[in-house]
Amino acid sequence: MNRAKVVVVGAGVVGAAIAEAVSRTGRSVRIIEQGVPGGAVSGASLACISTHMQDKEELPFLIWNRDQWAALHARRSGFEYARCGQLRFLRSEDEIESARYWIDTETACGLEPELLEPEAIRHIEPMLTGPIAAATWSLDSAVVNPFLAVRMLLEDAQAQGAQIQCHARATAVRVEHGCVVGVDTTRGPVDGDVVIIAGGPWTAQLAASVDVHLPIRPRKAQCLATVSQPLSIRTVVGACKSEGGVGVGYTQIQQSMSGQILFNTVLANGVEDSEDPDHVPEVDRSFIRDSIETFLFLFPGFADVELLRSWVRHEAVTPDNRFLVGPIGPTGLFVAAGDGGTGFTRAIGIGRVIADQLDGRESPFRTDIYDPSRFARGLQA
Ligand SMILES: Cc1cc2nc3c(=O)[nH]c(=O)nc-3n(C[C@H](O)[C@H](O)[C@H](O)COP(=O)(O)OP(=O)(O)OC[C@H]3O[C@@H](n4cnc5c(N)ncnc54)[C@H](O)[C@@H]3O)c2cc1C
Questions:
Q1: DSSP 148-196
Q2: Domain hosting residue 124, numbered range
Q3: Best mutation site among 9, 41, 283 for ligand 1, i.e. most ligand atoms within 8 A of its Cβ?
């Protein structure tokens, strides 16, 4: 029967985490995915789970999320998870000052970031020999294999009765007398009392079918990979920046378990904007140049290493770089999108927030900052 209590649109990491959390409440769940699970931005991710230099209002939420990924790793074999820690390089006194602010803020929340001199940095990351002034060190960061992460969450949801339908695009939310009654899909209608749109950058399109207009726009998220190298980069290396999200000034460098070095640097004007989430974009030339320059500035010893590939996907961005999570519009409609390039760091917590909202339970962390109506009400940060 094409009916479930809750219909989740999207099987990226956010939809998968929601399906897992909601099916644990005892509700029947149907997941509708237009492609394959993890086939959009989630599978293209570097998938670092971090509490370092993120939005300080979200820290308790991020800590909870971090613990859930570690618990998933402890529970499930075959899940690639490494608590490798994170270094954020600092080039100037200004950046060191800004780093001190983050260290103080995170320490006040019980975390243990440190400020390291170059000699101590080389001890942790011997190949990082570029001329940096200092770095922050947070042992708290982990990386996961993004495809396996999505798969594990979906398997846990399916073990609790959730069903998934792939290659079916939800084309409209159906509403009767002000209440959601399901979705139309390219493979026929699916009935449900609750519809949760976790469609990444496509979320706004589907919400518009019931006149709900969300301030989400697609943004290119790009990456480069070298050919396989002996394992030599041990941590996630990033730039120091003053706010969360993958905005201007962002750098991320890490080595996959297969040996490829994965890296990206986003500088001003380095990335063209995107309008249509269905458009298949190309990697920007200036992005390639900026990324290689930053990589070799930090790791000059890799100057002769060959590039293997590049890729680009669309992440979903909101005006304040925070997710939209919760009910909006007709009764029974929920959204969970607007990752700003940090969805793995938040996905399991978002599942928890939605499950709490369905159960009418207070969440243990702030949820007003994710209110999907905040821009319409002029309440954005
Ligand atoms: C290079 C790169 C590096 C990154 N590094 C990190 C990192 O280190 N840490 C981190 O936390 N995040 C990182 N991110 C961002 C992270 O990958 C995203 O924030 C996260 O994957 C978003 O998940 P999502 O489920 O919201 O979106 P998606 O993965 O886009 O999932 C949405 C799904 O919904 C489906 N869908 C949409 N509309 C419909 C419809 N109408 N009908 C049916 N299905 C539909 C889509 O097909 C898609 O599968 C990175 C991203 C990239 C590209």
A1: HHHHHHHHHHHHTT-EEE-S--EEEEEEETTEEEEEEETT--EE-SEEE
A2: 86-139+217-317
A3: 41
